[in-house]
Design brief:
Length: 144
């Protein structure tokens, strides 16, 4: 029981670290292809809103699958490494990431198509990541 709890916590922590690293990579990509203008304070919320409102569509179109891949991989890792490869690990992590992106999109003026794409792809990425994490266990168990 204790070992499975430790394994579950470790799986969630590791998948959160993976998610954070990938999110930082996506933000790094965004900062390179669409940097803040010189002299603008990126910690100023109004400056951030203006910056997001001016994102080129192609940048957002690239970010959508990058965010979806982040969610997929993080949920797959959480499920795959969690105790008994239980789906709760990936679903729990996916809900956290979904809440984070929802909060982000409420705060910032993204275009409707970007929000809609994320609201469709996030649950799909969670589902596929969890399903593949669980199914690999069933395939491996059936082969044994």
């Amino acid at each position: 029981m204790i070992l499975s709890t430790i394994r579950s916590i470790g799986a969630i922590v590791l998948s959160l670290i993976v998610a954070m690293v990938l999110i930082i990579a996506v933000e790094g990509f965004s900062a390179v292809v669409h940097p803040f203008p010189p002299g603008v304070d990126p910690t100023d919320m109004e400056a951030c809103k203006a910056h997001v409102a001016n994102y080129p569509g192609w940048v957002l179109a690239v970010i959508v699958p990058m965010w979806a891949a982040t969610v997929f991989l993080s949920c797959w890792i959480a499920t795959r490494l969690g105790a008994s490869r239980h789906s709760a690990h990936g679903i729990g992590l996916g809900v956290l990431l979904y809440a984070a992106v929802t909060f982000n999109m409420i705060m910032l003026p993204y275009p409707f198509w970007f929000e809609a794409a994320n609201y469709v792809l996030f649950p799909l990425s969670i589902f596929v990541g969890v399903k593949l994490g669980v199914d690999q266990h069933k395939t491996t168990s059936a082969d044994a």
